[in-house]
Amino acid sequence: MGATSAENSVVTATTSDLHVLVLAGGLSYERDVSLRSGRRVLDALRAVGVEAELRDADVALLPALTADPPDAVVIALHGATGEDGSLRGVLDLCGVPYVGCDARASRLAWDKPSAKAVLREAGIPTPDWVALPHDRFSELGAVAVLDRIADRLGLPLMVKPAQGGSGLGAAVVRDAASLPAAMVGCFAYDPTALVERYVPGMDVAVSVIDLGDGPQALPPVEIVPRNGVYDYAARYTAGRTTWHTPARLDARATESVAEVALAAHNALGLRDLSRVDLIVDAAGQPHVLEVNVSPGMTETSLLPLAVQAAGLDFGEVLGTLVARAATR
């Protein structure tokens, strides 16, 4: 099978007897997106004959898991609840299998500075960065710290929360005068800001799935936001972004982004599925920005677009993943 195609790889799985719980909602800033993801996953599973129900991750969850344990769980929660590893650890304690990576790998991928350090150690390209907690920012003097960051990394810069997703709190800083406001906006979502060198180029997302034959990269999705920044509004508002699937890359660059995405997925110890966000620079070199262990599943989300581009059925892919999880 080619590195960028998963055609004909969906294994035949008996799912009609499975009872699957789709977890969505939560209390993060991404609750609305999570609910949209959960409903789409629910509909896709039911369309292929899987008995599935949707439930929030609230005080009623643990009693429900005890009274009627599902055969598998699909985590459609975004933000900390679904991605920092804590919920996965609770599911492990309950002996309930789930689609996706384990708690340890989830914690690692969720913390962007830690994940970038692992990627860098593995030789996977990722933009230079500095992680700055709000307390240090205040104690050391904001002006002095920001001047040093700009001198060290250069301009423009990307500022985003060290933990978080959906583009919330993220901003491109093109001049030094805009950096303080970007930091304040970032700190509204997380006590630590990740400031990294901005790499101009093509925004690309590569989804990775494992349907039984090992991780495979799906066709890359090119992201073209109307205002030039792939922020929350651009991700989830119709008409704000154009997607090209597959991305408008030559054969060499297409192969390169697939190889780098697979390397990132494996370096972080991920399982079943992930989405790797990259920038491809003018020379065709991919740079990993972050890796998502609970990618969006909405009508404008990138993993479902990639599944469709690969000629696969979204419901069948999910059915295979839950069937494999149920055997763990």
Automatic annotation (TrEMBL):
Gene Ontology cellular component terms for the protein in this record: cytoplasm
Keyword Cell wall biogenesis/degradation set for record: yes
UniProt-annotated binding residues for Mg(2+) 2: 290, 292
Annotated positions binding Mg(2+) 1: 277, 290
Cofactor note: Binds 2 magnesium or manganese ions per subunit.
Keywords, ordered alphabetically: ATP-binding, Cell shape, Cell wall biogenesis/degradation, Cytoplasm, Ligase, Magnesium, Manganese, Metal-binding, Nucleotide-binding, Peptidoglycan synthesis
GO aspect biological process, one term: cell wall organization
Pfam families in UniProt: Dala_Dala_lig_C, Dala_Dala_lig_N
Catalytic activity: 2 D-alanine + ATP = D-alanyl-D-alanine + ADP + phosphate + H(+)
Pathway where this protein functions: Cell wall biogenesis; peptidoglycan biosynthesis
Compartmental location: Cytoplasm
Primary location group: cytoplasm
E.C. numbers: 6.3.2.4
Active-site positions on this chain: 30, 166, 301
An example Gene Ontology molecular-function term: ATP binding
The protein's enzyme class: ligase
Role played: Cell wall formation.
Protein name in the entry: D-alanine--D-alanine ligase
Organism of origin: Micromonospora nigra
Encoding gene (name): ddl
